[in-house]
Amino acid sequence: MSSAVTTIAPAMELSLRADMTLGTRNRYAIDDIAAGLRLWRLSWALGWLDIRLRYRGSMLGPFWLTISTGVMVGSLGLLYSTLFKINVRDYLPFLALSQVLWGFLAALVSEACTTFTEAEGVIRSVRMPFFVFSMRALIRNAIALAHNIVVIVVVFAVFGIWPGWEALVALPGLALWAVDALALTLMLGAFCARFRDIQPIVNSVMQIAFFLTPVIWKPDQLGPSGIAKLAFNPFFDLLEIVRGPILGSPIASTTWLGAIGYSVALCAISWGFFVRARGRVTFWI
Amino acid sequence: MASNALIDVEHVSVLFPLYHGSSRSLKKMVLAAASGRLGRDQQQRVVVRALTDINLHLQSGDRLGLVGSNGAGKTTLLRVMAGIYEPVLGRLRVRGSLNALLDPNLGMNMELTGRENILLRGLYNGLPRSALPRLEEDVAEFAELSHFIDLPVRIYSAGMVVRLGFALATAIKPQILLMDEWFLAGDAVFLEKARLRLEEMVRGADILVLSSHQAEIVRSWCSRVLWLDQGQVIADGPADEVLDQYLGSVPAQPVAALA
C-alpha cells in the first residue's frame, strides 16, 4: 500500500500505581493541568462547537442569547424601576451589567456540574486530561458572555454612558473569575459525577444566591448595616470587582480582599478534591 | 522494529464501584451477580471485580490476543493499558505512543462536516497544526468522501459513516495499538481495502493488543494469547496452545464454529 498512513501519534509515557503518595498525586494533578493547557486548541474548538450546536439551524445563531438577555433586561428594568421607584436612567445600565455578569456566573456554576459527565464518551475511550473539559466549560461560557456584552453596550449607548478607562480595572477581576471558574469546574465536575443529586442542590443554592446578591437590587438599598453584611456573600465581592469599575463606583479594598480570599479558599478546596478524585472520575461517570 | 515501547502491568486489579441506581448500573449488577463477582469493599460499597491481579509484560514485537467470554474483562484490560482506568491495586507502566481503538465513533459529531470531524480528531490526538492537512487528505481519500467532505455527517449514507469512522480511527500510527473486537466485526467494515489498511497499521505497531471473539483472527495476528475469565487470567502462553485450550473449553460458543 503506497497510500501509507503517515500521521504518527505523539509520544507518551505513563506510570500509574494504586498506592500513590500524596506527593505523586499532586504531581499527576499538575501534569493533568499542564497537559490540558497544551491541548488548549482542542478546548477552544469544543467550546465553540458547544455554542454552535446549541444554536444550530437558527438564523441568528448565538445572537439569540443576546436577544433573550436584552428582552429580559428591558422588561425587568422597566418593571423594577417602577416598583423600586428608581430613575430608569440610573437603574437600567446597572441592571443590564449585573444581569449579564450574573448570567455568566449562574450558567457557569450550573454547567460546572456536568463538566465531566457530558464528556463521558470521550473520557471512557481515550486518556484525556480532565483540565481540557474545564477549559471547554469556561470557553463556552466566555463566548456566551461575549455575545451578551452587546446588551450592555446598547444600554450604555442609549443612556449615553461612557465608563471611561477606569473600566479596564475590571480586567483583573475577570482574570480572577477565569481562575475560579476553572477551579470550580474541576471540583464540581468530579463531585457531581460521584454524587448525582448535587446538581439540583447547586441550582437551588444559585437561585437563593441570586436573591441575596445585589443583582436586580442595588447594594445601597440595604442601608449601611446591610452593606456590612454583604461582605459575607462571596458572590457580592466577586461580582463587585468586575461590576464596580465599569459602573464607575469605587471598590472598597475589603471587597478586593474578600474576593481574593474567597478565590484562594475555592482553589485550595478544589485542588484538594481534584488531587484525590482525578484517578477515580472515570469510574464515576 | 528497534524501539523501546513497553507495557508493564503488575498485580493490577480493577474494581467498579456501583454508586448509581441507574438502569445501566443495575444491569451491570445483575450480570455481575450472575457471574458471582459481586462483592463489597471496605466501605461497604457494592463493587464489581472487573480485573483481579493481572500481570503482564509486553515489549517491542509482542502481539498479544485477549480471549474470553463477554464480560471477562478484555475491554477493561485494554482501558487499563490505555491509561483510562487507573489501577485500584497494583501498577501500570506504558512507554510509547498509543492508540486505543475502543469506540468506533469517538468524538465523531453528526452535526459537523467530514472535514471538521477530521480536524477535531487531530486536536483530540494533540497533533501539531502542521500535521492536520496530511491527516485530512489521508482520511478523506480513504473514506472516499469526495465532495461530501464539506457536508454534515448527518446526511452521509451509513456506509460513508462507517468508512469515515474507520478511516479516522486508523489514521494515526501508534507504537502501541490496542484494539477492541468491534473493529473486526461486520462484513461492511471488512472490505479488502479496510483490511489492508488495518493490517498495515498492525504491522507498523511495535506492540499489538487485540481483544476478539474470533479465534481465527487472533491466531493469524497474535503470537501470544491471554485467556481471561471473570477478570482472572486462566491461561497465558503461545497463541496456538492457549487458543486450543480455550476453544476446547467452550464448544458451545460460536467461536468454536469459526475455528
Beta-strand content bin of chain B = 25-35%
Shape, principal axes of CA atoms of chain B: globular
Report low-confidence residues of chain A grouped into runs of 5 or more. Answer: none
Q: Which two chains touch over the largest interface?
A: A-B, 40 and 56 residues
Summarize the main sheet of chain B: 6 strands, mixed
Characterization of the model:
The complex is a heterodimer of chains A (285) and B (259). Chain A has helices spanning 22-38, 40-54, 63-83, 88-112, 120-123, 131-158, 170-194, 198-212, 224-230, 234-247, 253-277, 281-284; strands at residues 7-8, 13-17. Helix content of chain A is 70%, strand content 2%. The mean pLDDT of chain A is 88. In chain A, helix 4 runs antiparallel to helix 8 and helix 7 runs antiparallel to helix 10. Chain A is built from 12 helices and 2 strands, in the order ββαααααααααααα. Chain B has 9 helices and 11 strands. In chain B, the strands form 2 sheets. In chain B, strands 6-8-9-4-10-11 form a 6-stranded mixed β-sheet, with helices on both faces. In chain B, strand 10 (224-229) and strand 11 (232-238) form a beta hairpin. Chain B is globular, with a radius of gyration of 19 Å. The interface between A and B is large, with 40 and 56 residues. Strand 1 (7-8) of chain A pairs parallel with strand 7 (172-173) of chain B.
